[in-house]
Amino acid sequence: xxxxxxxxxxxKERILDGEYAQGRLIxxxxxxxxxxxxxxxxxxxxxxxxxxxxxxLYPKRGALVVPISAADVEDVMETRLLLERFAIRRVMELGLxxxxxxxxxxxxxxxxxxxxxxxxxxxxxxxxxxxxxxATGNAIVLRTHDSLRDQQNRMGLAALSAGLPRIEGIIAxxxxxxxxxGRRDAAEAETLIDRHLEETLRLLRRASAPDLTQSSSS
Length: 218
Prior knowledge:
This protein folds into 2 domains: 3-65, Winged helix-like DNA-binding domain superfamily/Winged helix DNA-binding domain (Arc Repressor Mutant, subunit A); 70-216, Four Helix Bundle (Hemerythrin (Met), subunit A) (Up-down Bundle). The protein has helices spanning 3-16, 28-35, 39-51, 70-93, 99-114, 118-135, 139-147, 149-159, 164-182, 186-208, 211-217, and strands spanning 25-26, 55-58, 62-65. It is built from 11 helices and 3 strands, in the order αβααββαααααααα. Strands 1-3-2 form a 3-stranded antiparallel sheet. Helix 1 packs across helix 3 (39-51), helix 4 (70-93) runs antiparallel to helix 10 (186-208) and helix 5 (99-114) packs antiparallel against helix 9. By secondary structure, the protein is mostly helical.
């Protein structure tokens, strides 16, 4: 990896795992020292992350970690609902058996929850949903779902700020979805995915207002 790539990967990972919190101002020197590179590649990395919408640059001051806006939350969750309802319905139409893979994703969530690893839990949560989308065989739908990855990860960590009861709720909801799909009960499965994502949206709305929206406008 080039120096700029290393600085980019480090900074992006710190944003996604929440170490660089939303609304925080980070300096080139801070990243330069952490990665062991000069400020020039860090500046290049910041420009790339600004183009991705994760940073907002302020000359001679540093880079602001762009907060998740209320509009981002609504757009991402609406897109997820459209894609994932289609995916679950398509999986049942095709008669696919995803039980082993889904069980493995849920077990990973339980393991990460027990270990207190929120970042890994969010990754496992996203993998659970991606299994359905990938199984449709629709490459465009999968690419669209994958394009939401970074935003989903940041939002997932925000949703988990509700604490352990929500973690347990996510796992229970996933098990219920798997059971409905196993019974080939399309109506029940779609109702469950609607409720599941609606609960996540409710928590994200709470997390994005008023603090994050105020930060976004400052």
